[in-house]
Each structure stands twice: as structure tokens, then as C-alpha cells.
Amino acid sequence: MQITSPTIILDKKKCHHNIFLMAQKARAHNLIFRPHFKTHQSAIIGQWFRDFGVDKISVSSVEMAAYFVKNGWDDITIAFVFNILETQKLNDIAKIAKINILVDSIETIFYLDKHISENIGVFIKIDLGNKRTGVEYDSIVNISTLIDQLSKSKNLTFKGFIGHSGNSYKSKNKEEILSVHQNSLEKIKQLRSIYISKYPDIIFSIGDTPTNTVADDFTNIDEIRPGNFVFNDVKQVNMGVCSYEDVAIIVACPIVSKHSRRNEIIVYCGAIHLSKDFVIGKNGERLYGKVVFLNENGWTNPVDDVYVSELYQEHGVIKASHSFLFKAKIGDLIGIMPIHSCLTVSALKKYQTTDGDVIGTF
Amino acid sequence: MQITSPTIILDKKKCHHNIFLMAQKARAHNLIFRPHFKTHQSAIIGQWFRDFGVDKISVSSVEMAAYFVKNGWDDITIAFVFNILETQKLNDIAKIAKINILVDSIETIFYLDKHISENIGVFIKIDLGNKRTGVEYDSIVNISTLIDQLSKSKNLTFKGFIGHSGNSYKSKNKEEILSVHQNSLEKIKQLRSIYISKYPDIIFSIGDTPTNTVADDFTNIDEIRPGNFVFNDVKQVNMGVCSYEDVAIIVACPIVSKHSRRNEIIVYCGAIHLSKDFVIGKNGERLYGKVVFLNENGWTNPVDDVYVSELYQEHGVIKASHSFLFKAKIGDLIGIMPIHSCLTVSALKKYQTTDGDVIGTF
User: Fold this and answer.
1) How far is Cα B61 from Cα A27, in angstroms, rounded to an integer?
2) Which of A81, A257, A276 lies nearest to residue B133, judging by beta carbons?
3) From CA B21, how far away is CA B16, in angstroms rounded?
4) ipTM of the complex
5) What whole-number percentage of chain B has pLDDT above 90?
6) Does residue A1 register a pLDDT over 80?
7) pLDDT value of residue B294
8) What is the DSSP letter of B7?
9) pLDDT band, very low/low/confident/very high, at B36 (cuts 50, 70, 90)
10) pTM, to two decimals
11) Residue B295 dihedral angles phi and psi, to the nearest 5°
12) Which one, of B232, B246, B131, B239, lies nearest residue B175 by Cα?
């Protein structure tokens, strides 16, 4: 299909390889592999995971869970502290599939206990240091109160503890990621020592691409839930999690205007396509994307010193060298490697593979 | 309709009043009012403009033009330097409606001249100081070359000059906005003095909510194309363009988690709902949204010192006072006033009015 507007290009081989590596790692460490599907959000890409033995998934909303249930998945963790306003929708999908949710408050358990009619697996969300949601790992009184309340509930089953070391995304390199991971392992070790004898079947689940990719020690961990690794992005490369060759998507976009006096190219590709996540460049500048050339096999590695410097609603500004300006013509398509692939997919909601297939999302 | 997930709430009265004020201003200054529909992106809201005599509109993409053509609009400016890869789509809509486009390069004119089969109005995009797209206003050789080429074309008609003082968005107050506007007026005055005698029918068009709202001098201007004013947002309030009472949309979102030790509330409302635009607060902090209470009539003004401090894919972190934490309960809906309403609408693509009606977008 002829590309005329901003379109995600997906390299299926790279994507398969990313899935293979993570599935292999999970198996080597005897971990349940429950990938987070919020990154690709696609039933078709979801099927690719089946070849690697995946039959359990994570999603980030009740609606996304409903979409994957409709597409044949029957063991889903909604990896977001549960929003009680969606209890009816939860009841609906739990009639057909095995659903786990996350809680971090007694209010939510009280409410669900009264209003839920299906059996639901419940993980207690633990704050492993990310400081977003979750009970502090050492708030033993709080945690025990939640477990006690779950134990009394007819339809809610205590499944274990779940954490997300999202703070790993603040790392500058592998060492910092490993330090975040070690810190999480310490916390989980303590939790496990307290609860495992009374609840021998509970599981300890962690997730985030940086630690899951870089770490080799998964002591006391039963399950991993990475998501971003399926595509990777500039942020992962910057942290040393992967290389540019491992990034499986770019956004193809038309060049619409050139400004040689200020070394800038304007592309049709803005905040509504890429989202506005950025990384900080070596001179303190904001980078909203790296720039690649498209070719027969997909795309090149990013061009040195050429990057997306500003994003408006539909416009992207590319800071370019003179040689890049010379090569790039109005009406050409160039590629932008996204800073954050999850948000880019969420914005564009569609892929074209390097083989020319079109794949939709949730 | 019961709200259970992030949903834009639209106050129709405030929106009507915003349209009324801008339409009245355009009439008072004898300006063509060609509002930019990229902010609301909705056929139904578009109809509200008809009551104020609007029959010409601006849009930001060829696809958005096609949507509004299908919904009865027949005089549309695609206010984005034309992307020649969409020439076929342009031909298709220009068969049914009067379409104007923007160009800033001779390459684009050459290409269109060969490939366009319908009559298209062409504005030369002038850079009024925004440094994004457009020919520099004093590049008289360039501008004259573009005009000459247009004059030779069978299907392309030179319509005039168009500018967008997007740099007004960097202003801190009305005085700075007015200074941006005066600067634009100077440039337009010079262009007019050069070209109006040879091309007496051309028009000079400007657009952007800050200058169009604040300015009272529209000497040498024929047309305005503001967009954001239809809803406004925190950014406009911060620049002194309007007050919080003039902001016509907020996003209702469920509270899912509370953290009293660090004075934080977590809501189901993230980057995929609000986008990631921010303003800088008085202590240098990033504000991704202001927080309001919902009530029978819509919502309150923003609560002092309570704001969205971080956005993840689906999570929003709200920095709250203790009194706010005390009032806000898990399962409550609260409102977030967006920093940038255009991007929020583009992300959520649907409204619920304070009267309970649901309105779709493009």
C-alpha cells in the first residue's frame, strides 16, 4: 500500500526476534512469561506470541482486556490498580475468561466484594520504588489487612504480589537498571519470607522491559510482564537495553517543507502521531525522535546528528545536517524512530509491515 | 451516560459563548471568519458555527477536509503546507468542494501543476516569525517566483498570503502576545504594499487564538483562522488570553489510588488521554493539567495548588493538598482541565456534554 501520511512500519522479523529472546529468557529462568500487550495492542501481533508458548497476558485497561478476550485470550491480568467504576465491565469479561486484577486499597476490596459476581484473581500491588501506585512493601499491617479481607471474600482470590519497577526508566545505563532490579529483589525477598509459608501458592510478579531484559538474577520471582521489548524504542537504546537494530518500528512520514538557512526539514508527523515523549540529547536539547532513511529491507540505523527537535499537532521539525538536507526532497518519505513506542502505537493505531501487510490494533 | 473511564465533558454554553465572541469580533473588524476546526474535529460542533454565519473553515489535514466535506462544508482551507503525496485525495475532495491549500516551495507547485485536475486555491505560506514553515516575508525573489509559477498554472489559483503566528504561544502575557501581533502586522504591511496593486483580489489571512483574541488592530488583514478559542485551555489562561471560566472542556477521570504520605492521588487518565503537553508552574514544576471538582452544572474553577504532576500511559499523578485528599475518594470522578485542548480532543475523540449528549469527532 502506497504510504501518503504518517504510518508505523513494522519489521516482523525484528519483532519475532525480540519475542523469541524474551520467551527464551523466561524459560531459562523458569519464569511465567505474561507479556504486556499494551505496547502492540494488536490481536494479530498477539498471535505471534503463541508460537513461543505464551498463553497468559497482561493488559492496561478493562477495555483492552475485553478486546483480547474477544480474540481468544482466556488468562489476562489487568495490570492497573482496579478502577471500581468498571466493575460491571469486569463482571462481563470474567464470565468468559480468567481475569486477574490489582488492588492497593481496602476500599476497592470492600467495593468489589459487594459488587462482583464472578471469580476474580487479585494481586496486591506493591510499590517497589516507582512511587506511583501500590502499598509500600514494608507496610505489613496494611498488606495483612488487605490479605485478610481478600481471604474472607467469596469471589476474590488472593493470587500474590505484583510490582512494576517503572523507576528503571530513569536509568542512564545497565548498571543503574541492575541497581533498581536488585532493590526490587530485596523487597520481594522480605515479602516472600513473611507470606510464603501461610500462602504457599501465591506468586511474585514483576514487569518492565529494562530490568527484565538486563537482569540475570530472578531469585524469588515467579512471573515477568515486560511489554515494550516487543518493539523497543530510542529510550531503550539510550539506556543500553538494546541496540538500534532491535527497534522493530519506525514511523514513515512525508517531507513537506525544507529550510536550508536554519537546517530544518518539516515533516507531516506531529504530536498526534508520535506523542510528545522526548529524551535529552548530549547538548541538553530535547529529542522527540531519531531519523532514519527507508530502504528496500526496511530502514537504516539513525542518521548521526539528525533528530526531531520540535513537535506540533501535525508538524514535526527535523534538525538536519546540510548533507541530509541535500538528500531529502519534498515528497520523500523518511522514517522517525520513536522515543516511546507504546505511545506512538496508541496514537496511530495501525501498522504496515515491511512486507506490505496492514495490521490493526484495539 | 454513566462515566467510568476518562471522558471529555463539554460545556455547550461556554463553547457557544466562545464562538459568539470571536464571530462578533471578526464582524466588528470586517474580517472573514474562517475558524480552524482542528481543535474540535466534530461535525456536530461544526454545525454550531453556522448560527454565527460561518460558512468557511480551516482544517489541518486532507483527511479532516474530506470529513467536513462529507458533512456539508464546501469552502475549506487545508492550513498545512501541502503534502504532495496526498494529491489524489485532494483531487477527490476538490471535485465536490472549494479547497484552498498552502505552499512554500516551487517543487510543490511544479508537482501539483502536473498532477492536479481540479481548480485549487493556493495561498503562499509566509513565515511571520514562528520559524516552522513558510517563506521568509522579505524573500521577495522567492515569493515572486512562486507567484509567477502559480500564474502560469491552469488549475492553481493564487489566492493570497497566509501566516500563523504560532510563536505567540511562547508569550507570558498579553503584552508579549500584542508584540508578536504587531510584528506580524508590520510584515504583512510590507507584503501588501508590494503585491496588492498587481493582485488586487488577494487576501491576507492570519490565525492563532492568542493574537486573534487579544489584538484590536487588524489593519491590512482580511481573514482570521483561530481554532483553540472554541474550548480554550490552561495554556490560554496562563497567557492571559481568557479566564478559567472560559475553558469549555475538562476530562472526567476516576480516582483509583490514594497516597497520603506523599500527598498524591492516582487517576485513570494518562498520556493517551491528555497528551503530554505541560506548562511550567510557579516553582519550576511541570503541570500536565489543573484539577477541578465536578458538580451539577459542570465543574468548579481549578483547585489551588492541586495539579497533575506526572503522566504515564494510562496513569495520572495528582499532587494534592491534605484537604483535597480528605475530600477525594477512590471511585470518585474528578475533572482535569487540559493544558492543550486540541491534543486532548485528538486523543479522546469523543465528548459528553454537561447535558448528557455524546458527540463524536472525525
Assistant:
1) 48
2) A257
3) 9
4) 0.95
5) 98
6) no
7) 97
8) E
9) very high
10) 0.96
11) -145, -175
12) B239
Q: Which of chain B's residues have a Cβ under 8 Å away from the Cβ of A344?
A: none
- For residue B333 the three cell numbers come to 470522578
The closest alpha carbon to B84, from B58, B114, B60, B121, belongs to: B114
Residue pLDDT, tens place only, B259-287: 998 999 999 999 999 999 999 998 999 99
Burial class from Cβ neighbours inside 10 Å (0-12, 13-18, 19+) for residue A203 reads: middle
Polymer length in residues for chain A? 362
Whole-number average pLDDT of chain A: 97
Report helix, strand or coil for B175.
helix
Q: How many CB pairs under 8 A join A and B?
A: 151
Spatial separation of the C-alpha atoms in residues B207 and B223, rounded to whole Å: 8
Tell me the H-state helices in chain A.
12-28, 43-50, 62-70, 87-94, 106-115, 140-152, 174-195, 209-214, 234-238, 271-274, 322-327, 341-348
Residue whose cell numbers read 523518511: A334
Q: Where are the alpha helices (DSSP H) in B153-254?
A: 174-195, 209-214, 234-239
| Contact: B132, A166; criterion CB under 8 Å | no
Contacts of A182 (CB under 8 A, 6+ apart): A217
* Gap between the Cα atoms of B142 and A184, Å rounded: 61
For residue A11, the tally of other CB atoms under 10 A from its CB is 21
Q: Across-strand partners of B354? A: none
Instruction: Pick A81's closest partner by Cβ from B4, B84, B266.
Output: B266
Q: Which triple of cell numbers denotes residue A96?
A: 468468559
Distance CA A212, CA A241 (A): 10
Give which of A61, A115, A141, A330 to mutate to test B binding, by max B Cβ within 10 Å. Answer: A330
CA atoms within a 13 Å half-sphere pointing along the CA-CB vector of B181: 23
Residue B328 identity (one-letter amino acid): A
Would you state the pLDDT for residue B360?
Answer: 97
Q: Which three cell numbers stand for residue A101?
A: 486484577
Identity of the residue in A272, A317, A342 whose CB atom sits nearest the CB atom of B343: A272
Distance CA A55, CA A76 (A): 9
pLDDT over 90 at A21, yes or no = yes
Burial class (CB in 10 A: 0-12, 13-18, 19+), B222: middle
pLDDT band at A140 (very low <50, low <70, confident <90, very high): very high
The one-letter code for the residue type at A257 is: S
Q: What percent of chain A has pLDDT over 70?
A: 100
**pLDDT score recorded for residue A147:** 98
In chain B, which residues have their Cβ closer than 8 Å to the Cβ of A314? Answer: 38, 60-61, 80
Strand-pair category, B307-311 with B57-59? unpaired
User: At residue A41, does pLDDT exceed 90?
Assistant: yes
Nearest Cβ partner of A313 from B256, B333, B343? Answer: B343
